[in-house]
Known about the structure:
CATH superfamily: Sodium/glucose cotransporter
Number of helices: 23
Structural class: mainly alpha
Number of strands: 0
Amino acid sequence: MLGIFSFVGFTLLVAVISYYATRKTDENSSDGYFLGGRSLTAGVIAGSLLLTNLSTEQIVGLNGSAYTDGLSVMAWETLAAIAMVVTAIFLLPRYLKGGLTTIPQFLAKRFDITTKTITSGLFLTGYVVVLLPVILYSGSVAISGMFNVPELLGVSNSTALVICIWGIGIIGSIYAIFGGLKAVAVSDSINAIGLIIGGILIPIFGLMAIGDGSIFGGLETLISANPERFDSTGNAGQEVPFSTIFTGMMLVQLFYWGTNQQIIQRALGAKNLAEGQKGLLLASCLKILGPLILVLPGMIAYHYFDGGLASSDLAYPELVRAVLPKPLVGFFAAVLFGAILSSFNSVLNSSVTLFGIDIYKQHINKEASERTVVKYGKIFGTCLALAAMFIAPLIANAGSLFNYLQEINGIYSIPIFTIIVVGYMTKRVPAIAAKIGILLGSALYIISQFLMKPYFENAVLEDAKASGIIDPAALKLLESEAYPHYLHVMAILFLSNIIIMLIIGKIWPRKEAFELEYTKQVSIEPFKYVKQVGMGVVLVVVGIYIYFAQ
């Protein structure tokens, strides 16, 4: 009961502060509703990058993957550091030189308006089908698990999950749709410190629980009990086979940290290139420590519960409920609730803006006033939130939450990343090539992963069972070897689309070569030691892999 009171109290405190901080903001203008600026310094950029990334779909999902596969899933965290280095050295200078505020804005300049609209449409589709439902589902799993909502309300697990999904969705929608970006930012800033502190406390209390009060004793117990789970190189039957690190894994990381509007917008707001690069490099250094919060608790949960949980996605919430002192459970749940709202709000707010500016204003009503654009953006956001609430419960049958998120994201992430790469690396590839590349890339990925893959996997499993193979582990391994890993498929399609676009550019080049103009909005003088620090980060990541390789 104390936990529930502390949860409700802290959540209400955040809501009241957010209301008073935003009540005088003009939410009827685009600037008031979706603010941005070019004055951010390195520390702010680094903190914002990490806190935007850190939420329950990461905490619950990746720890769930670590519960199943062990340390090998740390690739999602450690390789992010390398992606940020690449973004700092190669992508950010081009973004700031062009004076960009959004990635679709570059696509409109480089190709045409239609390409920008298709990209915005893909982003919105991904948000409603994948990202928003995953955020709601993972958050609901965490809240339901920590408070044992099924027992509290006397309902089934599935009913409790739906109740939590709709509760989080409604509150998040109120923040994002009616409060705008400022409400999101204010609530984020309050929850930030608590999330980091709480995230570090969980593995500390978890190690103490299995080490008779000793953190180092718990770590020694954890390693000695299952040394094979501390292997950084995943095998073919795991979520992240080692070979995928050299193919699609880096493409996914580069898309997320280098082109995803939610993330890169923090660096686009830098006061100059040097500050932006320092912010990305600082974030990359901190990201190397990410497995302490996002992987280690899942491995502790595997040992603590002896691998006996009904679902890997329960690993984190059940560990929190088991090892965190009762007075802190409510507070940590409130902080996690804030993280859920943070991600949900950010995605929903970005969706409202993409629809209002790129679709409604561009194609539906070109003469619309700012008040009208914001009005219809809010209506669209409400519909989007409702759709996400209906879809979220279906994710319970998707297997590994984090793996599901990354695989589905491939529908739009790699095609978009492909046309951005070609757009910057070439000067005469025409707009038609970008349209073909993005649509063909999405279509081929859907055919590969949702038609061909199930066909081959089912055929292999039927043959195996006909041969008398019934061991679940053996069947899982055969299933994983029946078809290329989705990260390999991403790499294959990435290269194929680039080749297709280059061929089109050779046959039907654009009349005038594209030139990236320097808008002089900010200084693009680079950070003096950007390459040296970047190389240092890369060497540390490689060293970690070598140290834990078995």
